[in-house]
């Protein structure tokens, strides 16, 4: 039997070979553990950065609520300090997760939302955080209405015998309004509106001189101060939970403008029997001629990123007496006028694009009952065709020029024949 002995050199070689085999087996396992730990570390860093952003956003909200409760406009004191931004800056994930990636962005978003809400409240007369506001506005309205007048009878239910007159009225109105808003208390605001109107109206009538092809045309104009209104807004309750902020609006309008009654008429065409065929008013009216009182309710609800608003109200017209109510230039008949009451309502939504710009869309409608007239010593008679339904679709863009000044532009599109074809308005409120 042979016995084999290994030399020290052989033993060392075997030991080295065994160690290399063990390392080859354990290397893949160590690399997998390192990758797993690195992935867990990145996940923890991302979660920590997200929690830091949430804490900062909550901190901003708490400061805003504390400032609102204390009546301050700046950030509240004593707020918790923000966590160190080292990790958040090193591992900042994309901002599309709905959270601000830094305190500056959170504050910027909060300021943008607050400014948009203030602009919407300024337009709906529900803003009470400003001590004084001076507003200049300029608006243009276009009105075009055509009607066919038939004066005769039908023969054999098919042939019309008589006169056919095609009338067209085109009116352009430019209005400048100076308004002052005074915040008496944190829940009450007084408003004064002083308008100045410039109007031009073109009257066209077919069948001039007895010829169906002839058209007579006359242009009249007028300008002057309109009806001055004084109103007040009282905040009934602030926005809380599902309940919107509601405001009570009360106003009165004085007949300071030129009334449409008793104006001089210009006769353009008469028949052989002295019947007036075509006559137009010499001057254009700038007011209603009667006192009016209004009562309304406005509501605003923030639903980030949208701002919802709505209003409803009633306008009552008081009875007025005038020296002449007859539209005939040859006669003078004094009497009384009682305009029909009007119900108005509307609703809309606004969206903030950034800290300066917001877009609003709204619908408004005004329903007016028939007016009544009473000649001296006579009875009240309803005026046929004096009722109206004026519905408008409004599109507006608000741009903040600076901290205290805003540019509001609005386009109104008439949806019914009683509403203007379109209106274009620009307003610049300067808030202190």
UniProtKB/TrEMBL annotation:
Residues 73-101 have a biased composition (Low complexity). Keywords: Coiled coil, Signal. Residues 1-24 form the signal peptide. Residues 34-68 form a coiled coil. Residues 72-101 are annotated as: Disordered. It comes from the Bacteria. This is Transporter. It comes from Stenotrophomonas oahuensis.
């Amino acid at each position: 039997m042979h016995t084999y002995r290994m030399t020290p050199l052989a033993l060392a070689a075997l030991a080295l070979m065994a160690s290399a085999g063990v390392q080859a087996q354990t290397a893949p396992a160590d690399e997998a553990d390192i990758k797993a730990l690195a992935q867990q570390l990145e996940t923890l860093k991302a979660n920590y950065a997200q929690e830091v952003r949430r804490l900062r956003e909550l901190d901003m909200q708490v400061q805003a609520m504390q400032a609102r409760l204390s009546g301050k406009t700046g950030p509240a004191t004593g707020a918790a300090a923000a966590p160190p931004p080292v990790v958040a800056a090193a591992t900042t994930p994309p901002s599309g997760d709905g959270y601000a990636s830094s305190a500056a962005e959170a504050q910027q978003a909060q300021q943008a939302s607050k400014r948009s809400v203030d602009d919407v409240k300024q337009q709906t007369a529900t803003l009470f955080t400003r001590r004084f506001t001076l507003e200049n506005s300029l608006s243009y309205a276009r009105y075009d209405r055509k009607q066919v007048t038939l004066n005769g009878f039908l023969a054999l239910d098919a042939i019309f015998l008589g006169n056919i007159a095609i009338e067209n009225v085109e009116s352009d109105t430019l209005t400048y309004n100076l308004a002052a808003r005074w915040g008496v208390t944190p829940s009450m605001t007084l408003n004064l509106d002083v308008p100045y109107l410039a109007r031009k109206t073109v009257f066209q009538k077919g069948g001039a001189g007895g010829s169906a092809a002839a058209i007579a045309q006359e242009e009249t104009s007028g300008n002057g101060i309109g009806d001055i209104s004084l109103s007040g807004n009282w905040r009934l309750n602030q926005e809380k939970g599902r309940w919107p902020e509601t405001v009570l609006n009360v106003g009165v309008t004085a007949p300071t403008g030129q009334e449409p009654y008793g104006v001089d008429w210009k006769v353009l065409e008469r028949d052989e029997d002295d019947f007036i065929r075509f006559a137009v008013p010499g001057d254009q009216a700038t007011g209603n001629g009667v006192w009016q009182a209004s009562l309304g309710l406005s509501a605003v609800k923030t639903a980030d990123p949208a701002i919802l608003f709505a209003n409803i109200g009633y306008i009552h017209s008081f009875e007025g007496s005038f020296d002449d109510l007859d539209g005939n230039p040859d006669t003078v008949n004094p009497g009384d006028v009682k305009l029909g009451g009007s119900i108005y309502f509307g609703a809309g939504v606004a969206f903030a694009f950034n800290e300066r710009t917001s877009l609003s869309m709204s619908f408004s409608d005004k329903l007016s009952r028939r007016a009544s007239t009473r000649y001296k010593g006579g009875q009240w008679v309803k005026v046929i065709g004096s009722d109206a339904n004026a519905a408008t679709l409004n599109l507006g863009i608000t741009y903040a020029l600076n901290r205290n000044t805003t540019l509001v532009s609005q386009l109104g599109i008439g949806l019914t024949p009683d509403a203007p074809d379109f209106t274009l308005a620009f307003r610049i409120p300067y808030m202190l």
